[in-house]
Amino acid sequence: MARRDILILPDKRLRQVSEPIKKIDTGIRKLVEDMFETMYDAPGIGLAAIQVGTPKRVVTMDLAKKDEPKQPQVFVNPEILWSSEEKATYEEGCLSIPEFYDDVERPAQVKVKYLDLEGEPHEIEANGLFATCLQHEIDHLNGVLFIDHLSKLKRDRVVKKFAKAAKRAAE
Ligand SMILES: [Zn+2]
User: How far is the CA of 83 from the centre of ligand 1 (A)?
Assistant: First the structure.
């Protein structure tokens, strides 16, 4: 396993739409292993492949609390089938937008279909943090970031701040 570098705002690759995975081969398994290592090392609770620069539709997640055993979950080609009218608000963060957090309102429940690493199809209903996290990560696969759900004013401010930091780092 190898930790990979996480793309940081305003890296344009974060805006790419990821491709569906046609075949779960050793390359995909290796990618998923690396994503877990990168996610646990960060540490974070969810990661989309595009965040390590690979535009494939796969997400890793682990919502276990610190004192609980690990609960690694993989979602290949996840797709939202249904979202509730009811909304829920969570304070979100993103490994690609470090140290910035804000409240985002999203559907409280979603129904999602996906494949596991064996290529078996699954359908789940999620709510609470799980539902929010799934929506956040599936957004990544479509080139959408959680700051896109904030007001334009807030979003512009964050993007500007990160663009400045990236410029400074490049100098
Ligand atoms: Zn994110």
Answer: 19
